[in-house]
Amino acid sequence: NLTQKLEEVFKSLKGKGKISEDDLKQALRQVRLALIEADVNLGVVKDFINRIKEKAIGEEVYGSLNPVQTVIKIVKDELTELLGGVQSGITISSKPPTVIMLVGLQGAGKTTTAGKLAVYLRKKGKHPMLVAADVYRPAAIKQLQVVGKQIDIPVFANETPGANPVDIARDAIAASTSMLKDVVIIDTAGRLAIDETLMTELVNIKQSVRPHEILLVVDAMIGQDAVQTAQTFNERLGIDGVVMTKLDGDAKGGAALSIKSVTGRPIKFMGTSEKMDGLEEFRPEGMASRILDLGDLGALIDRTKELVNEEEAKELAIKMQRNEFTLDDFLKQMNQVRKMGKFQDLIGLIPGMGKIKDQLKDIDLDSKEIRRIEAIIQSMTSKEKANPKILNGSRRKRIAMGSGTRVQDVNRLIKQFEEAQKMMKKMGSMRKGKKGMLPKL
Ligand code: GDP
Ligand code: MG
């Protein structure tokens, strides 16, 4: 983790007011390694490091930020700016239908993203339809139809052998008015590698239907190769933006930075699961944290916010800072987490928690488990809830009996709670320390 590595570098610096050139050189070496590890293109890394160097030399170690935090702040701000500064969604045409064309290599996630985009736009009050313009594999049409059925969105297709994708796209747009659809999402064919036939076909579709948005779908897992792909698609076709998929996997997403630097086109969306709700608007700051392995507290807070009201969130933040997190809060949180999605996904968003994420893979938060935990917690006194350490063997036994569970269950819960408490303490002190770096609740 970059924070730890920088801490190592700056160990000797304590007390000095400024970052010297030598300290900086060593720190930037770590930044460079982090970027390369995250699959950022070498040329892009070099440019980036040079820009940081200019900004950081002689930088005051300001306010309450220590040198590590200062360097991280500079690096992260710069990275955020390079990744997009402001985020940009889909441009909706004033004259319907808005036509969106998805392009990309085979397996990148075009068909899945087509469905996700339809769901996303429907939530925004639009009426999308899908178009099957990948006609070479019969399974491809079928796949889009399955997606459409699953999300209840109409799919325009022509299953006649030899049907031409250009005609299909044009017919679909003509049909959109009578179908009362105002957004047409075209799912196109892909190949394993870029080839001339594919490019020509995509150019023909583009010229025929004049899409408002051509979105390139790239798989984050292909890492460095994404740059070449993006460059070629952009040169041949002209893309308006990028959807980066499979960011729920291990890919650090450094390709996002390379793509943005090389093509100048914004990353607009991120695919974060195979499911139809797994599409998020791209957040440059979150991606910068991810690339630098800083965790993504912003995303966690966003997701928490969806379910916790502002008051509760503030209350929790205060508790975190004062270290007053109790088992009641723990239970509340578990219930929220269960509503929000998989626990380990959320944990992964917390800075420095990447490792713990793997260890937590087995925690299965089904409602039965939650009810069991609830029963255990309700059998405790409020003193015990605030500090379960005081529970001795006989109390644990009593609680297990009272809640219809086993002593092992009680012990396990207490251990999990202590982990959570440690985590809260860490987050609480970070919120105090890194002023200006972390989003406010
Ligand atoms: P296409 O060939 O470009 O149309 O790609 P598909 O939409 O068929 O996707 C290829 C595979 O990637 C499928 O198994 C999808 O479920 C999977 N996939 C697509 N997007 C994501 C994502 O964001 N996360 C994950 N985990 N899998 C994805
Ligand atoms: Mg497909």
From TrEMBL:
GO molecular function: 7S RNA binding; GTP binding; GTPase activity
CDD domains in the record: SRP_G
This enzyme's EC code(s): 3.6.5.4
Keyword Cytoplasm on entry: yes
Catalytic activity annotation: GTP + H2O = GDP + phosphate + H(+)
Record-listed GTP binding positions: 104-111, 187-191, 245-248
Enzyme class label: hydrolase
PROSITE patterns named among the record's database cross-references: SRP54 (PS00300)
Cited Gene3D superfamilies: P-loop containing nucleotide triphosphate hydrolases, Signal recognition particle SRP54, nucleotide-binding domain, Signal recognition particle, SRP54 subunit, M-domain
This protein's UniProt keywords: Cytoplasm, GTP-binding, Hydrolase, Nucleotide-binding, Ribonucleoprotein, RNA-binding, Signal recognition particle
Gene Ontology CC entries for this record: signal recognition particle
Locations listed in the record: Cytoplasm
Domain SRP54-type proteins GTP-binding span(s) in chain numbering: 266-279
Alphabetized HAMAP family for the sequence: SRP54
Family (UniProt): Belongs to the GTP-binding SRP family. SRP54 subfamily.
Its biological purpose: Involved in targeting and insertion of nascent membrane proteins into the cytoplasmic membrane. Binds to the hydrophobic signal sequence of the ribosome-nascent chain (RNC) as it emerges from the ribosomes. The SRP-RNC complex is then targeted to the cytoplasmic membrane where it interacts with the SRP receptor FtsY.
Binding partners and assembly: Part of the signal recognition particle protein translocation system, which is composed of SRP and FtsY.
Description of its domains: Composed of three domains: the N-terminal N domain, which is responsible for interactions with the ribosome, the central G domain, which binds GTP, and the C-terminal M domain, which binds the RNA and the signal sequence of the RNC.
Name under which the protein is recorded: Signal recognition particle protein
Source organism: Veillonella criceti
